[in-house]
Amino acid sequence: MEGSGARVSVLGDTIKHFPAGQLSAFDISASNLSKEDIQVHIVSPAKRPVSYQLTESGEDVYRVAFVTTEVGSYIVDVAVAGQKVQGSPFIAKAYDAGLIRVSDVPNGVVGQPCQFRVDASQAGEGQLEISINDGEVPNHVQVLGGGRCLVSFTPDTAKLHTIDIKFNGETVRGCPFVCRVADTSRVSLTLRHLELIPVGRPAAFNIAVDGGGSAELTVTVRTPSHTTLPVRVSGSVRAGFTAEFTPIDVGAHTIIVNYNDSAVSGTPFTCKVYDAAKVGVSHLPRGAIGKSLQFVVDASEGGEGNLEISISAAGRNIPTQVHPQGSARFAVSFVPLEAIDHIINISFNKEPVQGSPFVAKVQADPNRIVVSGQSLAATAVGKTSFFTISNVTGSVEDVEVSVEGHSRKHQRAY
């Protein structure tokens, strides 16, 4: 504003932006004017007037001081001797670095991206500055919108990383944030032998840590019901560690190994716990020669695994049919050829199920002649073979046997 010999200007960054909740001020330079010639009106984002103090701070300089708590845009109208100064009304934006929210900074792993979120949606407009280890570690900021962003960095050394965040030059509350970085490549373990394990028996695996120094190892085993099992970890960095636990439930268990609060490669690992004792076998009916004998195997409560069934008679294997019924239930059938006991072996994950081996009694039909023997199905060339004829009412002279080979020659046998 120029006129009446007066030169007026508004000075200070506060006329552009200022921190909420703190005393803020801007200056008015007005020569040849008095305090009474200056009029100031400040309106908050909620359209409420803001009180202020006008004081003389120097020759021809007057200071406007005020305190606000509301974040947002303020309208500042300045007039001198009834005339608005150049640029009035001004838009001054209030911010509050104390309203910046930073998500929990996770622990990091060497060579793997580490991420955290910064939420400035309630803090007003401003410039966000992020520095990791005093700028030694590069970081990338992805704008998510709405005043929120995702910050990521990739540590290359196993040490504490400090994160400093500033908003409009002010340090954000909670800084510096600390990220513990571990080198999990130092840790090796083998878990493949735990893919299938029996319930109620101790299971163990070894953990090796390369190099010296301390090592903070934690081992967690989660049950199918998401509870945790007691785990005993013994050993040292030099000798290696052993982790041991005993599952008490059938189902998938999750093994998690953390090194300095970071998950070791290969975990979480899922091991399947089974119980061969929970595999049930139905009643075995009495069999008859030439008639199919059937029973049911129920492994629905035994967990995951491999079911093996073998049937033999007099040391010879009998062809067996297994028919899946769904829900880990199986119908097993075979046709006995001899009136002798048939031995049924059933194992689950190489462990005999309860009651195995089972015995199937096979009897002959008293009202008919029965011919039985393994050689009726197959026999070796050049070797003596035999089969049995039962329930014969006459003498051996009454029996005539004809064996027809590939050359269609007939052989008589008694």
TrEMBL record:
Organism: Halocaridina rubra (Hawaiian red shrimp)
UniProt protein name: Uncharacterized protein
BP GO terms, sorted: actin cytoskeleton organization
One Gene Ontology MF term: actin filament binding
The keyword Coiled coil appears for this protein: no
Family membership noted in the UniProt record: Belongs to the filamin family.
PANTHER family: JITTERBUG, ISOFORM N (PTHR38537:SF13)
Superkingdom field: Eukaryota
Repeat (Filamin) residue spans along the chain: 1-94, 92-181, 179-273, 284-362, 361-414
